[in-house]
Write a structure and sequence with these properties.
It contains three helices and five strands, in the order H-H-H-E-E-E-E-E. The longest helix is centred in the middle third of the chain and has 30 residues. Among the domains are: 35 residues; 74 residues, OB fold (Dihydrolipoamide Acetyltransferase, E2P), CATH 2.40.50.140. A five-stranded mixed β-barrel has the order 1-2-3-5-4. By secondary structure, it is of the alpha+beta class. The protein is elongated. Strand 1 and strand 2 form a beta hairpin.
Length: 177
């Protein structure tokens, strides 16, 4: 050992030949490929082999369990929407055998014996509970040509009177100014 050499330098020179020649080049893998190789090297215990009948029995059991869960969920939803705990189907808007009655505003009275009525509806959204406004236009039979634009009218459902008319004028609730 020479005078200018320190023990650390001597140790580095002796280790240098081993570090200079790596045994195998390290392969740079994409993370997905590394994960795939790691999974394929899994040597844990696996489920025992099952024949076709056992697999079908497991499928049937799972289907029955899911069907029971669906049925419970539907019953909960139905109970939530039935008014005042009255079981059975929800009530229709106008009952069986009764004609619908609507109140709307006349937007056009130009055709003979026909008025166009806009019906505005504001209801709460079933899921989000926000007020949702919507409107629909219907053609109404006005035999006396009484209604004018802007009037608020009450109309009732009827048999088809033409290609588009299925409503009759009952009364003019409020005249336009």
């Amino acid at each position: 050992m020479a005078d200018d050499e320190t023990p650390e330098a001597v140790a580095a020179e002796t280790a240098a030949p081993e570090a200079a020649a790596p045994a195998e080049p390290v392969e740079k893998l994409h993370p997905k490929e590394a994960r795939r190789r790691k999974r394929s090297a899994f040597a844990g215990t696996h489920a025992p082999e099952r024949d076709a009948e056992q697999r079908q029995a497991d499928r049937d059991e799972l289907r029955k369990k899911n069907a029971a869960a669906r049925k419970r969920r539907r019953e909960q939803e139905k109970a939530k929407h039935v008014p005042s705990g009255n079981p059975g189907t929800p009530k229709h808007e106008h009952g069986e055998g009764r004609k619908l009655v609507r109140v709307g505003t006349v937007v056009s009275a130009k055709p003979d014996q026909t008025i166009t009525v806009r019906i505005d509806v504001a209801r709460r959204h079933r899921k989000y509970k926000k007020i949702v406004r919507s409107s629909s236009k219907i053609h109404v039979h006005d035999a006396a040509n009484d209604a004018n634009e802007g009037d608020v009218v009450r109309v009732i459902e009827s048999r088809p009177l033409s290609a588009t008319k299925r409503w009759n004028l009952v009364e003019i609730v409020e005249r336009a100014r």
